[in-house]
Records
---
Amino acid sequence: YNKEEDDYYLKDLNDGTGTFIKIDKPLILKHCFIISFGDSHMVIQFSDTKAKMTIKFLEGPKSDSSYNFVIKDSPVTIGRMENCSIRFKNNTLSRQQCKIEYRNGEWMLLDGDGAKHSTNGTW
């Protein structure tokens, strides 16, 4: 807690596997953010202009798989539904686990479909 700014901050102490925060409102994605859900971990990478986004899975059933998206592909959906941009057959995920939208020059991560949160959360 910072008294001067009347605000709270979270700092990772570099001990273990990192600090994960459950997404409960839209989050502006940054280059090299790691997103987790179920047993999957993925890293987000952007081109210099953010016009292209690459999602690379580090762990889980899609480990070592990469997916490329451009602004016109927005929204990018991840989940079990057939119409998801990245589809999983794993029943531990929600039908729509999370969604990535391009808004006002930024790629935004939303848990669930944006209106209803996923069952187990996106971290």
---
Amino acid sequence: MLSQILSFIKFPIQAGGAAIAGEQSQAELLAKAMVEIGNAMGVKTTALITEMDTPLGYYIGNSLEIIESLECMKGNGPEDLVEITAAQGAVILCLEGLARSQQEGEDMIRQTFQDGTALKKFLQILENQGKVTSDKFGLS
């Protein structure tokens, strides 16, 4: 059973002209259906609808967006990227009982960017996968 493998599912649903769901009303229907399916499988499920008509951050393109993500984890990310990342992460913290409210969860996520905890965890994940995390890329 799915609930024996997963403790929760969080679906990111995008709305807007560049999104698969299209209009906000279609995104809401998709989100509702996904949450109902997950809950019916015995897994705590939620969906967060975001607008996809405007790019996040300052950069466009995979490699540049990765660089910007690393900057975000170093506490130097553009506010729109930090905002959506904190909101998405806060949902997970609330589902896991690690935050009592969305705002508390967002504050916790933002703190990990400022104090370097997010970047340290990312580097640990890379090391666990056998990747070299030398300082040649200025990550630490």
---
Amino acid sequence: MASLSHQLSFLSRHRLAQVLDQDNIRGCDWRALVEQMGFTYEMVTFLRDKRSPTMSLLEEWEMKEGNAASLDALITMIENIDNRPALDVVKDVRANLSMRPAPVSPRLSTTYSPSTYTSHHNSVGETNNFPEKSSDDKLSIDQSNLSTAPPPY
């Protein structure tokens, strides 16, 4: 399971904070999320003077829970506090994550031809073995797995 920091971009966190930082007469704002995340009232006191209590709360939750702080866990908590606009934000993020291709690293392969080694003497008379350089030497990148499409935002 990927951690929240890998799933929820700064822009998405900001959009979520715009919804949850607003006082809500039904009580389904960032304060309700504090309780869902297992923090005490002292956390509400700590966060209320922050520029964005939601952004700070997400950071505190990630530090407390580590990899258990996931997008799916956040969605469940937002469902529990019944804040539809906030739920729309995080569900949009999850939908975009499912459409994003998995990251692929290019495979590097090194080929030395011929594979003979020659001895070279350094300035103090020690012998070092190096592969003999050939005009066939190449460094190639297998690009068959690389996507040319830009990542979705």
